[in-house]
Write a structure and sequence with these properties.
The chain is of the alpha/beta class. It is built from six helices and 15 strands. A seven-stranded mixed β-sheet has the order 3-2-1-4-7-14-15, with helices on both faces. The chain has a four-stranded mixed β-sheet with strand order 8-5-6-13, with helices on one face.
Length: 231
Amino acid sequence: MPLVTQESDKKAAAIEALKLVRDGMMLGIGTGSTVKYFIDGLSDLVKAGVRLRAVATSIESETLARNAGIAIENDFSGQLDLDVDGADEIDAEGNLIKGGGGALLREKIVAYNSKTVCIIADSTKFKERGLGEFRVPVEVIPYLKDMTRKQVEKLGGICIFRKNGEFVTDNGNLVMDCDFGIIRNPADLETKIKMIPGVAEVGIFTGLTTLALISGAGVVEVKKFRNPVSP
């Protein structure tokens, strides 16, 4: 019997997500280690003749997708058919913490503009008692960044610029990793952080997840959520 590991669970969730892909779809492709397995699977579909177009949430994912033979669009004005992405944490209501890879701004744009948002993850990412073990990434414009940090900290967080401010996103911004403890009201905190001038985006995602494919011990569990926010 094959050994079940965290990596094999990531791959299992990604393979399950491939069942949602249909010929002619316009996809959103997320970022992260689990999504890499999804892109590998898309490559096999393309080789089999499935026609796909996509937007990618990071330069890294764009490169991987192009190498897999997927047609990447640099801009798109319509609604995406399916967005497949990972998460650093997901709770029982489908709320997420994302941005461990630094792609949170593009990831949220893509998720918001997708008909279906499918999150793929191994079971360690599912948090029954709520979000907050993983620090909340906040993308910050470099101008007067310490002012922005102080304003976010007024909401009860302890914020540290990633890699002492040397981590720069694909958008040219910085990322703060913020510890708020267990987050009791993710939607409220998301809104309050986003309203602070200097914040480009916050890595709390609420009301966007359509379904999650959570793999643990080699078994993929499908979790469905209420209709997400959409344009």
